[in-house]
Amino acid sequence: MADIETAKRNAAVKAVADYFKPSFRYVGIGSGSTIVYVVEAIRALKDDRISRILFVPTGYQSRQVIRDAGLQDIQFDSLPNNTVIDVAFDGADEVDEDLNCIKGGGACLYQEKLVATHARKFICVA
């Protein structure tokens, strides 16, 4: 595995260990290559409570990653009114020394912003 992929996986494992709780009800899952490692780290916890969590994807790719892991997804527009997402994980293409993030120019950006702004905590895994 290339050094960059190892770093992404390690960052995802640390983010999940520090900010994910199996007791959560809603978890946002962003888009991009790092998110695969986030979902993998959540699945590796092997806690039965995870099966009750609804994961909110920000795009087709993250929805497929969630489903392929055997987790339940729910579309953002299907959330009950006034729902607060417990935590949202997303990646970034670049982060500068002031922690400003540069997101990709993909079609998921608007959905990523919606999920992030409706979350109690936003975790950028980079």
Description:
There is one protein chain. This protein has 126 residues and is an alpha/beta fold. It contains 4 helices and 7 strands, in the order αβαβαββββαβ. Helix 1 (3-19) packs across helix 2. It is globular and about 35 Å long. The mean pLDDT is 93.
Write the layout of secondary structure elements.
Elements: H1 3-19, E1 26-29, H2 33-43, E2 54-57, H3 60-68, E3 72-73, E4 87-91, E5 94-95, E6 101-102, H4 109-117, E7 122-125
Parallel strand pairs: 1-2, 1-4, 2-3, 4-7
Antiparallel strand pairs: 5-6
C-alpha-based Rg, rounded? 14 Å
State mean pLDDT (0 to 100 scale). 93
Q: How would the global form be characterised?
A: globular
* Major pleated sheet: 5 strands, parallel
Keywords:
126 residues, alpha/beta, two-stranded antiparallel ribbon, 37% helix, globular
Gist of the model:
The chain is α/β, with parallel strands linked by helices. 37% of the residues lie in helices and 18% in strands.
